[in-house]
Specification:
This protein is mostly helical and about 350 residues long. The protein is built from 15 helices and six strands. A four-stranded antiparallel sheet has the order 3-5-4-6. Strands 1-2 form a two-stranded antiparallel ribbon. Helix 6 runs antiparallel to helix 7.
Length: about 350
Amino acid sequence: MPFLGQDWRSPGQSWVKTVDGWKKPTKNENETNNNVSERKSNCKEEHDKENLILSINYDLAAKKRKKDLLNNNHTKIPYFHRDKWIYVHKGSTKERHGYCTLGEAFNRLDFCSAIKDTRRFNYVVRLLELIAKSQLPSLSGVAQKNYMNILERVVQNVLENQQNVRPIKELLQTLYASLCSLVQDMGKSVLVGNINIWVYRMENILQWQQQLDNIQINRPTNMGMTFLDLPASLQLNIMHSLADGRDLVSLGQVCPGLSVLTEDRLLWKKLCQYHFTDRQICKRLIVTEKGHLEWKKMYFKLCRCYPHKEQYSDTLQFCTHCHILFWKDTDHPCTANNPESCCKPVSPQGFINLFKF
């Protein structure tokens, strides 16, 4: 088929532009041009491969940095989120995708600073205990590691301050018992991670328990007036501020004088009325031969049958208007006319129930 067009060079033929005009290259020139083009293509391919390898290495390095940030492989200081409040969303919308889970909430809220605050310490410890009992498998892998990091901070805080030893011992016992049953079901996707990691964490728990058992309360250097030097009436008033009967029993073991005061019937009566309702008390009445109520025995019997009344100096708050979970002394971006009317305190159990969809 003849070539029709303004360009007189036929298609499919190679032409070389010279000083004298366009000419067909000879066989040697064709081989030279082919070699040059092959070298260029090879250089281009090598350059492309090099760029591809660099981009892959960059992506791998970025993923590794992100993984190291979460797993704390290169830092001794654990990584904690510092969010004072989070938005609790229970469904997917155009503006937001996914759900807010218990693990996400536990991982994002500022629990690391909360354990340093004496007002929030008991709240966080109670939340850790509830998660250890039944909610630990529902946490993500990062949240489970963050849980252990926060627990380590709690133990360190107790060892340094020598306060709240008994609640932390009970928390560690509960967690160890839960892990013993969960580790047996590792093949059923109960816990995230290798079983050796959890065995190592269980060994840490045993080590923390031993450290708490060996703790020795340092006596104050100030030899001024002590609790025993106060009048009996003032000592009794201070005992009325204690909310746990076990603290009264421990206090009564200090000396015979305090042992007599801790047996005060009115003291145990107020404890029963504080923690339990009248209906619960009526179901567990214990009467002596003389017709008197045994308030102390009733208190411990009621403790075995019913949960204690929980009261905390500071708690998390939940705004029903904007669905934001925040600490009590933290301002949140609420658009309601009266934000205080929309905010409700959230107990540790309520915190867990908030993420049950």
